[in-house]
Amino acid sequence: MKAPRDFERVSLGIFPTPIQRLDNISALLNTNVFIKRDDLTGLGLGGNKVRKLEFLMADAKKRGARVVFTTGGAQSNHAMLTAAAARRLGMRPILILKKRGVTACRGNQLLERLMDTEVVFMDTDDYADIYAEMDRMGEALGEPYYKIPCGGSNALGTLGYVDCAREIADQGIRFSHILCAEGSGGTMAGLALGAKLFLPGVRVHGMMVDTDPFDEITPRLMREAAALLEADAAVSSDDFDLRDQCGPGYAIPSKEGREAVSLMARIEGLFLDPVYTGKAFAGLVAMAREGAFGPDENVLFVHTGGAGGLFAVE
Ligand SMILES: Cc1ncc(COP(=O)(O)O)c(C=O)c1O
């Protein structure tokens, strides 16, 4: 079996990210809640995508790409961080975003403007239209280009979170549960596969903040990443848990999510976001209240970033 560190990657972030105990949240929920600070990954405003981009941008570089395309919603954190990574590596970022959500010059749109990034909005609900437009634009530019899928969630990007599970194992605290937001699937799939390989006995829970079929997406990405690693891992739906935390819709704040953002700010002085981590943390609070975690168990919440959304989505 190969390890994620055997794959080429470019250094974009600062790792390992710290793990901290949330003393006030732990007292409130009568369990031991820890937070993995992947909001501090060190590029742009930080966030989970930096781990994926270290692998994806290495591949882009190896293939001689001068232009990097990616996509997402109007306030995609992934798109903003891809632009930041491309700028750092001297490549030209072009973002073709769905014309959905807040397109005004706020949040991630503002950050993209600061990086002088080309942003094209497409009025479509189908990513196939967007990938076709990337090819059309790329051919017209006549320069080598590289396409990163929505959320960086392909097998190579998923390796970023397999490696995060290895990092968590190396940090020495034994966890019973790991929770994260699930938006395009790579973070959760990487953690679930990584837990199988490096954290036996840990339950990984994906807090779904969109309505895609994650029961199919998660094991597919786990299998594809396992194949890249040549790992003998028989993936099944028993390897992870999913919980619907989407509320009124993707990128539309939920009442529980807003309460979670506010709780974390008020008693821990840390900021979640309304689109991903607030809804995901609301899932952790609900599970604790349902009795899912024992008083002596250690529960790890992976803070996947998303600060840009805090300044755009109301
Ligand atoms: C802040 C934040 N958290 C979590 C996620 C979800 O990660 P994934 O797309 O790998 O499921 C995203 C994805 O865009 C994100 O921006």
Write a short abstract of this structure:
The protein has 314 residues and is α/β, with parallel strands linked by helices. The chain contains eleven helices and ten strands.
* Structure class: alpha/beta
Which ligands does the model contain, each kind named once? Answer: pyridoxal-5'-phosphate
Rg, rounded, reads 18 Å
β-strand amount: 15-25%
The profile of the biggest β sheet is:
6 strands, mixed
Helix content: 40-55%
Which term fits the overall shape? globular
Average per-residue pLDDT, rounded, comes to 97
Let me know the number of strands.
Answer: 10
CATH class of the largest domain: Alpha Beta
Which blocks of ≥5 consecutive residues have pLDDT under 50?
none
Structure annotation, total helices: 11
Tell me the series of helices and strands, N- to C-terminal: EHEHEHEHEHEHEHEHEHHEH
Spatial order of the strands in the main sheet? 1-2-10-7-8-9
Please give the CATH architecture of the largest domain.
Answer: 3-Layer(aba) Sandwich
Terminal CA distance: 46 Å
Tally of separate domains: 2
Topology-level CATH name of the largest domain: Rossmann fold
